[in-house]
Amino acid sequence: MTIGDSPVDAAARRMPVAFFGHGSPTNVLEDNDATRTWAAMAKRIGKPKAILCVSAHWCTPGVRVTAMASPPTIHDFGRSLPSPLFDQNYPAPGSPELAERVRALLAPEPVTLDTQWGLDHGAWSVLTKAYPDADVPVVQLSLDARRPEAWHHALAQRLIPLRDEGVLIAGSGNIVHNLGVLQWNNAAQPYPWAVRFNDYVKQQITDDTPEGLFDIRRLSDDARLSVPSEDHYWPLLYVLGARTEKDRVTFLSDYIVFSSLGMTSLILEEADAA
Fold it and tell me: Which sign does the torsion angle of CA 31, 26, 49, 157 carry?
């Protein structure tokens, strides 16, 4: 596979970008609205040449990108979760070529080619449902935990050329993610602040005003409650950073479970392809 010198045919549409609201890793063991949405998103997007995934579960000092040919499946969660989760394996190939391409696009920002990480559950739990054959190369890009929202958004803008090279840029996280106040009841209603914040974020995306999503926890009590830490929020900014002026948004699986865990997913794609 060659990345960078073989853009998709001019008659073909530019690859969309996608954000997966991944929720609990136990979703991979279930058939529910979210998992069916992830499969439907993949069908709508089509089979990409490769996937660059930005997961909430790989935060590092500095920027890293997986660069191995066969990334391992990482079970990065506690033993209190169901044992079948630890049997999950997503044997998608990696792509050292794509890793090198990402490093070139992000220059002069230093990017480390990583051979130790692999695919964490933010990546494989959604890709297992979206691309179950595991035959699309997957590379993960880490989140520099030292940086603010505006920086993440600006960095992602440099990745836009990948969309014309057949690469799906996918973020995996949650807009609303407050595990400290979860109500473990499938019938639990969302907290009002969670609904308000989710609606606020969707409106900024619809209006294409990403600056309204920067310094998010300083905006309001709704934001501070919905985003007590930024790790699950930052992947959304990479999806929005890879947006172009022709893109229109479609929200999917747009609901909140356990009162404070948002499952909203979205696709950004050129209007004439939607």
Answer: positive
Q: How many CA atoms lie within 13 A of 195 on its CB side?
A: 5
Which of 141, 136, 159, 130 lies closest to 252, judged by CA? 130
Six token digits for residue 22 = 């991944």
> What pTM did the predictor assign?
0.94
More confident call, 78 vs 52: 52
| Ranges of each domain in the chain | 24-273
User: What is the pLDDT at residue 109?
Assistant: 98
Would you say how long the chain is, in residues? 274
CATH top class, domain 24-273: alpha beta
Q: Are 272 and 16 in contact (CB under 8 A)?
A: no
Handedness of CA 147, 149, 152, 155 (dihedral sign): negative
* pLDDT for the residue 11: 42
Report the C-alpha gap between 105 and 241 in whole angstroms: 14
Helix (H, G, I), strand (E, B) or coil at 74: coil
Is the separation of the CB atoms in 157 and 243 below 8 Å?
A: no
- The dihedrals phi and psi of 158, each to the nearest 5 degrees, come to -75, -15
The predicted structure's pLDDT at residue 1:
60
Distance separating alpha carbons of residues 185 and 139, to the nearest angstrom: 35
Please state whether beta strands 111-114 and 247-252 pair in parallel, antiparallel, or not at all (unpaired).
unpaired
Q: In this structure, which amino acid lies at residue 255?
A: Y
pLDDT bracket for residue 218 (50, 70, 90) = confident
Calculated CA dihedral for residues 15, 117, 145, 176, nearest 10 degrees: 60
